[in-house]
Amino acid sequence: MRFDLLIKGGEIVDPATGYSGPGDVAMRRDRVAAVARDIPSESAFRVIDASGLLVTPGLIDLHAHVWHGAGYYGIDADPIAAASGVTSWVDAGSAGAFTLEGLRRYIIEQSQVRIAAFLNIFCIGLVAWDYELTNIELADVALFEMVANRHRDILCGVKVRMGATTVGSNGIEPVRRALQAAERCDMPIMVHIAHPPPGIDEFLPLLRAGDIITHCFTGLPMKLFDDDGRLIDVARRAVDAGVILDIGHGAGSFAFKTAEAALAAGIKPHAISTDMHQMSVAGPMFDLPTCLSKFLALGLGVRDVVAMATEAPARILRYEDRGTLRVGALADIALFRLHEGAFPLYDNTGVMRTGRYLLRNVETIVGGRVLERSPASPRAIWAEHWDRGGTNARMRQFQCELVARGHTPEQMCGCGAAASG
Ligand SMILES: [Zn+2]
After folding, report:
1. How remote is the CA of residue 169 from the centroid of ligand 1, in Å?
2. Could you tell me the pTM of the whole model?
């Protein structure tokens, strides 16, 4: 029996199986059917020439916001997935108990790419940029459990955002309630960190093995490292206890200095995720391959960064048939070109590091189907034009500067290719 689709002549990087090197990947229906050094072209109905390209499992983005049209953050998932190699998004708390049905019906069921969600402990989810947990009555554990039990097939945990502007005067009560919900539903929590109060020493000790700290390499005041670059004690104990570190780059939560201190101290993130949303998508975050390129610039290898966006999130989410090209796994596959040159890559504090490599997606396949590339939806009006007390305006100005300098990934892969040629 012939294969439906064959990816031929690429360089396979599959950290989950350890396959690394030249090889072909064949698919039948929605599954990987064969992986071998040489699979004849005649054995498939359709062949994609992958010469010069990396062939990896489809990327799994552990932290994104894809509820397009229903709030401040959400982006349109499919066009961005098709251009970046993401085959599974995890929406991190855009929906709460009152609004999850809508995320399911209008986004998850309509999208070509796979989407799961962390359900916000706040009943309404992320409609505005902040303030969601300032009214603690709207973090209802019993309601969370009732709704979660109807949607367990699309849920992977509980989201809670901890910081002065999200919890107001409620201290650590939101994270307590998130943990109660997590206990009742047997799920992990994902906790966002930003500005105190509360202090992280008040709530990191509550986290359990398998719970996730997102924005783990933030430069903001809740950062996990002291000014000398040492992992602070309370964070060390959390990591030793099995708490998971997730990047969640976003628009304000990734700092090269923190990342360099962490790597120097031997602390690697478990997962690299984007925190893709209306603000971060225009840079300097841009997309998941650009985030992976920043970790290449920090000295990690291609296999490491691919593992952190495939095998690792699959393990964290207990996906047995994703994040790998193992025969029988879902045929979720991404093709990348690894441009070589000198690429200016920025964090959210304006610090730049020059990367030797820039990873750019060429083709994205979900369940054996090549995703069609289509123009990204226009950004939200507020993301382009609204000056929210200065913060948004400064970010917008930085994004415009990146364009003016020619430092967006699209602009750079032209000059990068030329530089390497
Ligand atoms: Zn987020």
Report:
1. 21
2. 0.97
